[in-house]
Amino acid sequence: MDDRNPRDGALPSPADKRAAGADAPLGVSGRIAGFFQQARITPLLALVALLLGVFAVLVTPREEEPQIDVTMANVFVGWPGASVADVEAKLATPAEQVLSRMPGVEHVMSVSRPGVAVLTVQFKVGVARSEALVRLHDAVSSNADWLPQGLGVLPPVIKPKGIDDVPIVSLTLHSADPATGAFALEQIAHSIETDLKRVPGTRDVWTIGGPGRAVVVELDPERLAGAGLAVGDLRRALQSASAGAPAGELVTGNRAIAIEAGPFLRDADDVADLVVAARDGRPVHLRDVAEVRDGPLPATRMVWYGRRDASAVTAAGAQPTLPAANPRADGSPGENATAQEVPAITIAITKKPGENAIDVADAVIARADALRNTVIPAGVELSVTRNYGATANDKAVKLIQKLMFATASVVALVFIALGRREAAIVGAAVVLTLTVTLFASWAWGFTLNRVSLFALIFSIGILVDDAIVVVENIHRHQALHPGRTLAQIIPGAVDEVGGPTILATLTVIAALLPMAFVSGLMGPYMGPIPINASMGMLLSLAVAFVVTPWLSGKWMKTHGGGSQALAGDAAGPAEAAPSDGLHATPTGLAARLDPFFRRLFAPFLDVRSGSRNRRLLGLGIAGLVGLSVALPVLGLVQLKMLPFDNKSEFQIVVDMPAGTPVEQTAAVLRELGAHLATVPEVTDWQSYAGTAAPINFNGLVRQYYLRASAEMGDIQVNLTDKHHRKLQSHAIATRERPALQAIGARFGANVKLVEVPPGPPVLAPIVAEITGPDADGRRAVAKQVRAVFERTDGVVDVDDSSFAAAPRRLVNIDRAKASLAGVPQAEVVATLRAGLAGEDAAWLHDASRTPVAAVLRLPAERQGDLDSLLQLPLRNARGGLVPLRELVTVSSTEREQPAIHKDLLPVVFVTGDMAGKLDSPLYGMFGMRADIARIVTPGGGTLVEHFIRPPADAWRDYAIKWDGEWQITYDTFRDMGAAYAVGLVLIYLLVVAQFGSYLVPLIIMAPIPLTLVGVMPGHALLGSQFTATSMIGMIALAGIIVRNSILLVDFIQLERAAGVPFERAVVNAAATRAQPIVLTGLAAMLGAFFILDDPIFNGLAIALIFGILVSTLLTLVVIPLLYFSAFARGEKS
């Protein structure tokens, strides 16, 4: 059954009804405008909206990036003495199976090392932290009996991690005074932790670096043997002296007196005076057989602070400044560029969830500054080495300024096009829409961050559309009906465009809102854009129908009373149209555009050649779309998840060969620091050897907080403010990478430059997960894959998860000899550990803020002497002494490789990054596929590639699963593509409901592909990458362009319903609706112009500017002609 009528090809639409005349009843929009244009409550509603916005700006927390609710947790399970194979089979694998069955889990990973299993549980984005941790604790505790109690496995320790564990402020204490070393700085840092924790909004405060304080009992094998004592005797004496407890109560004289047994050990003198034996009736004190000192432990972690010039002192709360070094043209330093590196301690501070990062950071820095010259001695400097509150505030202030400029530019546009009164009305409508949208954003739970503010800036152009369309139509009706009052004109004018405006608003929302359901880390990161923009569109519609008519009635003037409209728009009585508001002859600006569109459309409306010309036009446009789609295929437009942002920091991650002592790692970091002193853009850096630097969100996901081994080091590099340097941080990192990696190569170090990612972080930009049936085979394949990475152009920072061969010595206990000597094996193990790693035999009870242990260990100078270790005596069952060397044999071997599992599969990771001209990891990954295909596996086969999911049978063949930025790019663009498709379906359904036709919506949506003609060439022209934000722009364009089509088709139907000839109606539609269409398009382009300079949202701006520019111009031609082509045959019949 055909539902089209012969005149317009559709069921009677609202346009037909509105065309019936001025006396026709008003629709919903007209009745709303008529009620509120004279209602006393209207200005009060506007005032409330304004106050709500002010309230939202004052109370909404400000942050630099959106707070993504991603919860991770590490589960540490110790098993002293167990091999990697035992830990993997008996601990890690069963634990993975238990943890992976919890609901809401994204990934479960494990690393099995000698004596310990570290499991990482990553929950899906959006799972609440409290809920996730309850599930985790329940799963661990309810399965605590999976291993026999006597096996020696220690209880699991759960350490949750989340976005609130990222420090927003780090303070670094350092001093140029040689007498103030790391130990003294550590004590100062501990003394100010409590003061900083008292700052409202702080969550955790902790100290990074320092050797730690202890009472060290340095074992002397010769003195112990001479006194007839074993290490176990000292241990038992210390433990016995640490015993103390309430003994009960003594009741005497009708009073209860508490009795306590003790005392505890309180200082080093108590430890040294401890009697450990008696000889010839005289006591033997601990000081007689060992050196006892209260002080720093041997350094296992080192931190120091470096800067380019000794005069570049950074005060608390001040930004570091670049010293006057006069760098040479090649970037090398001038004569004044020097480096100063001194021992340091870093204090990291996190904030509570929901707190304003700016307020907390400012309060912390102010409190620390108040401690100068009191708790912090005069010779100790305090440098603010991280202040995410300041960066968040700078970003927020800058974006709010852009928001104001964007609003002002749109108002100026309306002023030029329509006049100052109309511009004032539109400006007021935009301000009210923004303020109430800010309140709605706060109520939804968003913070003021770069994404939510960019969403508002991006939305300016579309939020103003409703007001522009309403004001422009009121303005036009003034010209059509000069004899009527505004009170008579406004309801009908609003009603005429009300239906299309409602439909156009809903189509924009239909295009944007599905993006809110993008999964993974990218969903909540970009979530404020579709949600804020959709809420803004609904609110702008309400403002356009409620406040705009009231303002128009108060501020606009009739043409007879002196119009402020654009010159030439006024229509005299002779030009007045019929009273129904529809006309065959355009007036005002439309009259001036009418000849242009007549000439433009003439070849396509010609009776003889029009059909052929329209087909040629369609083929030409299709060719342009095809060429635009080909640009990425030809490499003229690069595809990337997100471009790098311009930050004021980057990180250098250093991995030395396994077994490297911390002193050697520190030496490499100092060499790297010496090079940083030559970089003009660097202000200061903090080096961390044997301990992790304060993490950022990237470090949280990559678990950099676990980098606490002696062979690991980090350097946190701070750059000058981005406003005071020419190069972006990515360009600086790319420039310095070769020199820094060359320094590392001299020492056998793997040096990687890690930049703050612009969006959700991943393990590495390029990740290859190698699976297979055999551990040695997996490592062999990974070695070949790593070689491919290293010889692929542009691939940098290559690494893998296996260790280089490192020596290991096994001290094998001869059980037979130990049994005959009456020495338990546990005593041998404890003595070995005490001699090397040290043993906390007792704890002091003093006034220190941190626990202080009495530690048994060999002196530092004898730590590398195995003979000294084997001379330590043990006491046998008969009371005699037996040296260690008589009970053990020593053999040499290699350290065990760690066993890594991901989602129950054993894997070896090969990682890399992409730098250079093609810095998108996708091109590096696909560029090495040919070489990957030539790899021969240990079984003689080829390596099977997987892109989306891991292999179904990982034990059959060796396979490679690509991960990293590829995975998040695939997931994001898959979900965005689905959101795009859902949006198109919703738009189609909305337009069908409005126009009552299945064909008209297809005509209205036809310009959507035309956006490609602007988007892709625009990226190519500006040399920008097509990113996820570019895709967001394309999705938004679908709704924006459909709005224009709706206005055109609705007007054509209005004209035809009034009896205007088909060809004339087509020309009138283009001429009359050109002004509001171009105005709204320019408004959206102006809003996008203000985010064009942002590295991340540059793609969104390009998509909107070029997409709207090209598609708007084409829509004014294509839609009228396409509508004519579709229904011209029915018109003739």
UniProtKB/TrEMBL annotation:
Please provide, alphabetically and separated by semicolons, the GO molecular function terms listed in this UniProt record.
xenobiotic transmembrane transporter activity
Q: Write down the superkingdom of origin.
A: Bacteria
Give the record's keywords alphabetically.
Membrane, Transmembrane, Transmembrane helix
Query: What is this protein's record name?
Result: Efflux RND transporter permease subunit
**SUPFAM superfamilies the UniProt entry points to:** Multidrug efflux transporter AcrB pore domain, PN1, PN2, PC1 and PC2 subdomains, Multidrug efflux transporter AcrB TolC docking domain, DN and DC subdomains, Multidrug efflux transporter AcrB transmembrane domain
Q: Which GO terms describe its cellular component?
A: plasma membrane
- Renumbered to this chain, region (Disordered) spans 1-22, 316-337
Signal peptide positions (record): none
Q: Does S-adenosyl-L-methionine show up as a keyword for this record? A: no
Q: Looking at the keywords, is Membrane present?
A: yes
Q: Which InterPro entries match?
A: AcrB_DN_DC_subdom, Acrflvin-R
Q: Where are the transmembrane segments?
A: 41-59, 399-418, 425-445, 451-471, 502-523, 529-551, 616-637, 977-995, 1002-1022, 1028-1049, 1070-1092, 1098-1124
